Amino acid sequence: MITKQYDIIILGFGKAGKTLAAKLGAIGKSVAMIEENPLMYGGTCINIACIPTKTMIIAASKGLSYEQVLNQREVVTSRLRNKNFAMLDTNPHVDVYTGYGAFTSNKEITVTAGDDIIVLSAETIIINTGAVSIKPTISGIDTASGFYNSTEIQHLPTQPATLGIIGAGPIGLEFASLFAKMGTKVTVFNIEPAILKREEPIIQELATTYLTEQGITILNSVTLDSVSNKNNKPVIVADNQNYTFDAVLYATGRKPNTEHIGLEHTDIITNDRGAIVVNDVCESSVPGVYAVGDVNGGPQFTYISLDDFRIVFDTLTGNRHYTLKDRKNIPYTTFLNPPLSRVGFTEKEAINKGYTVKTNEMLVSTMPRAHVNDNLKGAFKIVVDAEPI
Ligand SMILES: Cc1cc2nc3c(=O)[nH]c(=O)nc-3n(C[C@H](O)[C@H](O)[C@H](O)COP(=O)(O)OP(=O)(O)OC[C@H]3O[C@@H](n4cnc5c(N)ncnc54)[C@H](O)[C@@H]3O)c2cc1C
Prior knowledge:
By secondary structure, the chain is of the alpha/beta class. Helix content is 27%, strand content 27%. The protein binds flavin-adenine dinucleotide.
């Protein structure tokens, strides 16, 4: 057994963690970065999420074959992964450990790498273990084959002719659009009355129209009875009807990845969703132990993880100007066609929060520019606080 002491240990090679490692290493701090999977150097975004999905969408829209789309995905992710690894590997103050890390006390993490056990300790520890897909609780899902999460679905060796998707949020619909573009017949199973449940009704309606025009079948307000296999194919039973597919994706949310990282050996507190509870500077209930990115239960975006980096870096370098309290109005985009971008409350959310609102909606087709572009799709909705300041 090897033991080693660092100024800072970072558990997980995510967006915030790798940026902290690079910046803290650059100012001479000794840093240990622990990543369990060499195919995940650089984290979720570049290897299994934002980057590969958009790469596949662009490759598919160029008319490339399924194999070429997969190949392009591999080319781009391995390029970025290698670049990310090199960024830390060449830093003389940073050691990268490839192995599974778990807390063995408040200030100690044990890394298991094959037969090697390495015990690392530091006064400052950053937890950046991301999130994992939530498997829906449907009878039969634990034993049936052909049901994949968002990572597994990107590695199917052959293109499914038919794909069922459970869930109609951003991830489910992005994959629906991607596979439809490649010629797969897609059916979306949505337990809610409308897709994109957090969006404005006008957006839900338009997105439904556009996805349907792409040949995607959307089944809203369904009850999922059970799943199983027939002739080795996945079957969904919904509202007493059987639907058979070549593959099924479940895109039913992601939860903070805290289950197997030894928190029971620490005084770190998690909430009922398994997220590490943090204060305004992303510090957990153990002083000096921080949680950044998806694992602290904030909005699940790469740029939020990067923003957590800013807060922790400021804190560790003695400058507490920017905290979670200062982060407001988080914008986001869902990569449908056309893309959906939003910042702020929906009309309903604003009213529920007690605001008096003024709203306006405008179809893109009413703008001359849309006609110039020969693309009339889309709409704008604006919700403003009607009370004078
Ligand atoms: C399909 C999909 C598409 C997405 N698209 C977008 C998008 O377009 N834009 C956007 O902003 N966000 C997108 N997201 C969300 C975004 O990917 C995440 O919010 C972001 O990557 C989270 O980063 P993180 O810093 O929390 O950690 P991650 O990048 O998730 O890194 C966690 C790392 O920790 C490692 N790890 C975990 N446990 C251990 C352990 N015990 N020991 C060692 N290593 C460990 C993991 O292997 C991983 O590399 C998407 C997500 C998905 C699933």
